[in-house]
């Protein structure tokens, strides 16, 4: 009892001392704050420049700021007078939670949520104080209950679907190739499954007593030292290891039959580390294994985020390095008699698939695979040099560069990008930057392709991640209603990923048309809007708008450009629909026309004059196709049509664009239920994504026997089919 009295008296003495000090120093403290603020106000007042005189500027600026201070002082003093009358317990509880909320994730939500709770509680409290039997009290309680009911309904419902419907006119377009093997059909191989890893995993039996092949751990500390800090200490408690001993774990699907099979590595991205991501690609692993591939979905969950924190892309190099450490194991097993995979792996044909942060990881792995030393410490030697032929990025991030502000470039590799318009994590077409940076410098055949799937999201490419692309409370504000069915999204992934591996690792070029035009497989695709991009190492560019920003010059030497009666004619980078106005790191030409514009006389057109320079491209070989990329840049115009004219020395041929393809309308998205509370991509409602268009010269020759593509002098886009519109053109060329 005496001990408790002692502590109580001590606490009272401390409070009395603090109060006395405060009362004696309050006047001086008040004057000090006022003087500090006045000095600051005077110092920034000089930035108000009226042009009359510096003295006048300072006086005006000071008066404005002093008035603002006076108004604030009066409002806060009045509010404080009112607050003093409140129950101190209420004031302390409210301020405590409001302040704590500043340090919690997603404070954009918790502050309004606390205030709504305050209002609701106050209304109900007022009703109770008046007596529950009174009509006013009943009305107040009903209003509070209904308001909260609506709030919780709003938060928990899936939102609304205002997406553009897929019309029959769009979906029933004629395909250039009618019969292509369905790459999503299971093959003839029987599929077996096994696990390899450390054999002592604390959290998963798959990598504990169920491993068929034990692997040694690897030390990642030279690249990513996570052996210190409280967060890493907690991670070590959970996993049982840190960056000194990362495991090499994976689940494998492979053909039971004898033979050598290409190897495919699948790498998940960032997700809650406790919700293990690597099992989520079984639908791909089993399909590919049945078609003659060995597929390993590797475990990098220990690099993922949790309540402890997120490495925020600083771990991407380590993700990439771990992929190559897995490949080292496969090389060893392939050469080790008695191993499950002895002489079973075609190490000359390796493909990588990366989802989310796994996307930049596989891209980086394909680059450092060719390095002999670590770029940040050349004393560390590498000896990888695997035959990585192709990579597939699924909704990748593009936030990491191994060198500061130097984007990673990919050379001489096959590439595929899949991304959804309703991705509510990477909600802009970030991977398009990777696509644009893929280049070909050797003499081998390579190709790259991108597919934009209108209503696909981020998570449904992984069966573990599912429909919700972010954590609570943000997920409560996501508009989930428009998102396509999970089975349909995975069907698209199976078609394109399987076709890519067939084309890249098995050199089956009959699958290439799938990547040029979705219409070639629309019999097996789910009914949806798709946009394809495609380029290969045989492409030769007349105008790709990367050489300069002179609107009258082209990429091809000697070619000149002219425009007539155009409302819009400019060259610029294509924007992303993100929230910070970044670009796709790719330039194009913006062309707009409007017949109602009084200043424009005559038909709007855009002409590329090639003269004799086409011979530099053809090199006396017969050219097969004209190609270009296009997108609609006018949100309130649903269709695009115009005339394409090709002029040679002896002939002129024309095609209407609508005879080549019906573009989808602007694919507008509403990713959240309300942009006033939580927004994603608020600056624009649709992404500018270029569609690849190919015109076979053989078709034009059937219309005009004199047409010779090797003698093309002019390529003209004549905007004569619609009253107004605006498009973006890019990458005009021949192959």
Plain-language structure description:
- The structure is a single chain.
- This protein folds into two domains: 189-536, 3-Layer(aba) Sandwich (Rossmann fold), CATH 3.40.50; 540-734, Sandwich (Jelly Rolls), CATH 2.60.120.
- It is built from 16 helices and 25 strands.
- A ten-stranded mixed beta sheet has the order 2-1-3-5-4-6-9-11-13-14, with helices on both faces.
- The chain is globular and about 100 Å long.
- The N and C termini lie far apart (94 Å).
Quick summary of this structure?
With 735 residues, the chain is an alpha/beta fold.
Keywords for this structure?
single chain; 6-stranded antiparallel β-sheet; 735 residues; alpha/beta; Rossmann fold; Jelly Rolls
Secondary structure elements and pairings:
Elements: H1 2-45, H2 54-83, H3 88-101, H4 107-130, H5 135-156, H6 168-171, E1 191-197, E2 213-214, H7 230-239, E3 250-255, E4 261-267, H8 282-290, E5 294-298, H9 316-334, E6 345-355, H10 358-368, E7 373-374, E8 377-381, E9 388-394, E10 410-411, E11 414-420, H11 431-437, E12 438-439, E13 447-453, H12 486-505, H13 512-516, E14 530-536, E15 540-543, E16 560-564, E17 568-575, E18 583-594, E19 604-609, H14 614-618, E20 625-632, E21 643-647, E22 652-656, H15 657-660, E23 691-696, H16 697-703, E24 714-719, E25 724-734
Parallel strand pairs: 1-2, 4-5, 4-6, 6-9, 9-11, 10-12, 11-13
Antiparallel strand pairs: 1-3, 3-5, 7-8, 13-14, 15-25, 16-19, 17-18, 18-25, 19-24, 20-23, 20-25, 21-22, 21-24
